[in-house]
Backbone:
């Protein structure tokens, strides 16, 4: 099975670490969204889309990219890293993928470290910021490995 992972990871490369783990474990190709070239996408049997979460959303660039792809009957999965590490952030992109006729194989999320003071003065985020330190960690990588193996 020929697989491709496309990721956006602009803050601390947290998402890139997970993308690299996936690529290593499934022997698939990896491309940063910055270098993405649409040509040849049809050759892949499985495409993974990953992003950090920035102000409650995955990268708008990733949404634009998905909008411009023909994904009818294509196997896809979505992954993200965020301060809180919750999968619900993936749902909006999953809905877009579904609307394009893609087959959703799975959704993965884990925490990615951040420093709240760099982008908000809301106190609650300081707590999440502290809890996120050191992520993604070895446990996150284990979970990521289990996830990718479960969908191959
Ligand atoms: C501008 C900005 C906004 C963020 N907003 C959120 C957010 O709304 N929810 C959250 O859980 N994490 C948020 N984070 C934390 C990031 O999602 C987290 O650090 C993620 O791992 C970044 O991925 P990256 O290093 O691959 O870019 C934010 C980080 C930045 C820099």
Residues:
């Amino acid at each position: 099975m020929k697989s491709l992972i496309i990721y956006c990871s602009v803050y601390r490369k947290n998402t890139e670490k997970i993308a690299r783990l996936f690529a290593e474990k499934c022997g698939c190709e990896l491309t940063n969204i910055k270098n993405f070239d649409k040509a040849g996408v049809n050759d892949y049997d499985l495409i993974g889309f990953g992003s950090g979460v920035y102000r409650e959303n995955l990268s708008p660039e990733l949404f634009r990219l998905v909008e411009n792809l023909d994904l009818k009957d294509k196997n896809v999965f979505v992954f993200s890293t965020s301060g809180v590490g919750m999968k619900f952030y993936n749902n909006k992109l999953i809905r877009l993928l579904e609307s394009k006729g893609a087959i959703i194989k799975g959704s993965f999320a884990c925490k990615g470290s951040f420093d709240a003071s760099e982008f908000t003065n809301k106190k609650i985020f300081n707590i999440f910021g502290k809890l996120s330190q050191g992520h993604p960690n070895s446990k996150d990588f284990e979970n990521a490995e289990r996830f990718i193996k479960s969908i191959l």
In short: Strands lie at 3-8, 29-32, 46-54, 57-58, 75-82, 103-111.
